[in-house]
Write the structure tokens for this entry.
Amino acid sequence: MKQQEVPNPWELVESEFHPQNYSLNATLFSLGNGFIGLRGTFEEGFDPEPFADGCYLNGVYASELITYGERAYGYARHNQRMLSVPDGKQIRLSIDGERFSLAEGELLSFERRLDMAAGILERNLVWRSPAGKTLELHSRRLVSLVEKHLCVLHYRVTPLDFDGEVRLISALDSGLVQMKKSDDPRLASPIDRRDIRTLESTAEGGHLALRQKVLSSDFTIASGVLHRIDCDGACEQSSQQGKERAAVEYRCMARRGQSIQFTKYLAYFAEQNRGLPDPAQLRDYLENCATRSFDDYAELQRRELDSFWSASDVEVRGNKALQQGMRFNLFHLFQSLGRDSRTNIAAKGLSGDGYEGHYFWDTEIYILPFFLYTQPQLARGLLEYRHSILDAARARARELAIKKGALFPWRTIGGEECSAYYPAGTAQFHINADIAYAVRHYCRVTGDTDFLRDKGTEIVLEGARLWLEIGHYNPRRDNRFCICEVTGPDEYTALVDNNFYTNLMARAHLDYACEVHDWLRAQEPQAFVELARRIQLEPEERAAWRRAADAINLPEDKALGIHPQDDSFLNKPKWDFANTPADHYPLLLHYHPLVIYRHQVCKQADVLLGMFLQSSEFTAEQKRRNFDFYEPRTTHDSTLSACIHSIVASEVGYPEKALNYFRQVARMDMDNHHNNTQHGVHTACMGGTWLCMVQGFAGMRTQDKQLSFNPYVPEGLEGYRFRIQFRGRTLELDAGTDRTSYTLISGDPVTIHHGEEILRLSEPGQPLVCKRESAEVYAQ
Ligand code: BGC
């Protein structure tokens, strides 16, 4: 959605209805609470765009056999596909026999507003029917952030110039219209509906329910609706019970100027191999929810969001569009995040079914830092999810002839590898190191040793064993430890030897494995003995990790002064960018993978990402040389790329580039830069927005237990402010063009670095101000 002006950066407003933006806006206006996700479609639907709808439950999927033309041993067998569950938003409206639809009649006014401080989507319109009757429609919707299973919709219809019959059919409908299979690997394939059995359909009074079983995955889904209607005139009610659809119809006699109000309480429950509330319990649940009004839930929602924003907001001064983009992205991250340690955050959140609802490394590298530094307990849940899928990761490792340890799936929901295209899937072994990196990051920032003892160490050690299994000491490389046949983050270069990122991250992983091994043995000997027994840890493994870490091969080209992305990258010809038409991007939709693979061309940051994550191992000069080399070879066809370029640009002294990348990142979905937001938001890029600000412009780094900043404000912005949590403390940084202030908001005194300065923050609420030019420190 192109926004010219942004009067209020807490809101996203659609002030004119453009049918061609319907699907895109269904993503942008989607609501979620980490469990339920509702696309931002109209209650009445919009016939020209039948595919735009979707209601999702995080972690709830159908399992389907992957059909290969040619199979080979160990290919992923099943895909797990996020389901669209029965649509309970549906309200069909007609007046005096004429169906309300924005595809017909005349729209006299229209506005849709997503209020990100309130967590409410609201729509106001005035419509004249083809027969010339005018009505006003006001609808509000929320997916409760406090009541995991609940959504509440409020609907008000007012005849403006007629007395007549208003007919409302409110449904719970599982007959979703699906798109056909496409060649775009980023889109979801259609679901075989035969896999979903409706066990029960109920329509009694204002109560509707559907109970369904997903045969392939053993999920049971219970959806229910309860209505409260408020109408002054006569109102008849009748139920419609179909196999896939339950509905209630209200026929109300309405008078000009008098409103009919309607509240719809919608609940979803889902369990795999476990009990669910029975129909009577579901009804009781809804009855209980319906003792509160929409406004009551709105109040609770607001309180929850107040606390979210007070911990997480990033104030961006001097550019309202970027401020809005930042808030929009953080809001969507909060809406998308699984909070129960059994679910995670999908590449498209709960806003669309692109990438089929799969979880990727996006979580650990791009998204987790935002939660870690703002609501660490939520970050812990993400890592606990990884622990919960360890058994599946062990089984996957065995399929790949890895005798010990675990191989985490490249993409999954329930834990099994779902990537059918292994060169850009399973071959991305770096996922193990990414997860270990996140465990280390989490433990450094929180000091949570309980997690490290109970789950973290196991994740790290089991993951680290992989490297010894797939790497080897290469006599032709001076016995350096080499890892062959892997794909790094850059998916335009596949199945290579010694991918720089993979080797660098593997080294850090092996290092950390030694560290946590020693820590557990010394600090929690009982837990160590139990873990060692459980995973059959051999005494010599630790030494083997140390040796491999010390001997790891990191490709380096002394003449160019850069780190080649892998052993073969520099031997390839550079992609002919000059003769690539603009409409041939993303390359993946226009060229066979082999054409792409044999060129020097990157989809996304790879070496630069490694240098950012292991920042202290490289000088600014090394980073700059690599930036200069890779940037012109990078298409940024992945939305995971621009944010890393922004951060590294900040660090190497390219503020203009840093800001330009940030502009794209912050408004990636709002401005639909990649032209596919209609299939869902890009959660990794949303996390990247926070990273650009906090780790890019403010230069925040965490080295061991030490926090450092190196803030600047790029020309074009006036400043920024954010809070972070660090080891039980809350700190605030406020950067202006000529000064930065640091405030300890709560918690014990702490020492931080500001550039070369060392600052002691000891008085809560007392800002320490550093002037930019002189870096002089004085108390205000
Ligand atoms: C990127 C991957 C990413 C995936 C899901 C792909 O386009 O290349 O790095 O994990 O999207 O966001």
The first strand starts at residue 11 and ends at 14.
